[in-house]
Amino acid sequence: MFFLYPLVAVVIWSINSIVSKLSASAIDPSAISFYRWLLALLVLTPFVLPGVWRARQAIKPHLGRLALLGLLGMALYQSLAYYAAHSVSALFMGIIGALIPLLTVLLSVVILRIAPTLGILLGSIISFTGLVWLVSEGNVTQLLSQGLGAGELMMLAASAAYALYGVLTRRWALPLPIWHSLYVQIFFGVLLLLPGFLLAPAVALNLHNLPLVLFAGLFASIIAPFLWIHGVQRLGASTTSIFMNLIPLFTALIAVLFLHEHLHSYHWIGGGLTLAGVILAQRLRTPLTRRKTAGLHRL
Questions:
Q1: How far apart are alpha carbons 73 and 67 in whole angstroms?
Q2: Residue 195: its pLDDT value, please?
Q3: CA distance 183 to 216
Q4: What pTM, to 2 d.p., does this model score?
Q5: What is the SS3 assignment for 287?
Q6: By the 8 A CB rule, do 284 and 123 touch?
Q7: CB–CB of 273/127 below 8 Å?
Q8: Chain-centre distance of CA 95, in angstroms?
Q9: Which of 163-172, 195-204, 241-250 has the weakest average pLDDT?
Q10: Which residue from 166, 182, 153 is spatially nearest to 101, judged by alpha carbons?
């Protein structure tokens, strides 16, 4: 039954792609970004703040890194997705989000000095091919002449920001309890989002956009991470990460059923290649270069 932890988490994150798309016509992107993390911060405060305050001396040396993680994971990632939702479909957002594991692996090669594998090489080529086919809607010539749109670029930047967030989290391995670290990151995220919120033209909450804020702030920001963390603790990081590959599939299903978005052949082909490349990069771990034998026969 432990598999239900990551499974429910990815369902929530898949629904959040739909929420992001719905928010495009209901609330300013800067407003929902700020409200989302402010709500999460307020809900967590009674449970987490006392422990954070007691551990403040241990947290203080890591504030700079926590601030950067808050910028990448809380401020940039979802904010860019909210802005992108004005011009791209929920289907597209789900598929591009599926690139995060592959981008994480590629950044790990550079930042963590992880040895490149055959899976990373082939997976990158296949996923890139799928991405080009998806973005061009099956017309690569048109893409070469017109280039990427703002929404596509923002979704790619959002995915890259979250991938970098994951890599830096692994590299720094901050000696702090998970919820203490997340709470301080969310705090910095709220501070960084405040200027955009104050400059937004319309930030009023109403019956139309309040459910979107509540879902993003409670389910996507607190409940899903809680379930995911428990999944990692019980199933292991490698097994749990496989469930991330289900997000574009769930997103596509929900988008078709509830937003009445249409699945075209380029979605199947581009999305399928993108997902296949991600899985290949995760599973095929044959090293590209062989290390020299440590010991040599003596004459």
A1: 10
A2: 95
A3: 16
A4: 0.86
A5: strand
A6: yes
A7: yes
A8: 11
A9: 241-250
A10: 166
3-class secondary structure, 98: coil
Quick check: 269 and 130 in contact, CB under 8 A?
yes
Q: Which residue has the tokens 């629904």?
A: 15
Query: CA angle at residue 124 from 91 to 19, to 5 degrees?
Result: 20
Helix (H, G, I), strand (E, B) or coil at 9: helix
How big, in percent rounded to 5, are the helix, strand and coil portions of the chain?
80, 0, 20
Residues 88, 255 contacting (CB under 8 angstroms): no
The structure tokens 């000696």 sit at 175
CA–CA dist 285, 266 (Å, integer): 29
Distance CA 16, CA 10 (A): 10
* Mean pLDDT over the full length of the chain: 86
Least confidently predicted of 15-24, 149-158, 246-255: 246-255
Residue 46, exposed/middle/buried by CB under 10 A (0-12, 13-18, 19+)? exposed
Distance CA 32, CA 200 (A): 10
Of 19-23, 70-74, 82-86, 109-113, which range is least confident? 109-113
DSSP 25: T
CA-wise closest residue to 213 among 29, 49, 53, 83: 29
* pLDDT digits 0-9 by tens, 175-185: 999 999 999 99
Looking at residues 73-93, what average pLDDT do you find? 89
CA distance linking residue 104 with residue 162, whole number of Å: 8
Nearest residue to 230 (alpha-carbon basis) of 243, 212, 218, 245: 243
Per-residue model confidence as pLDDT tens digits over 115-172 = 888 888 888 888 888 888 877 777 777 666 666 688 889 999 999 999 899 899 989 9
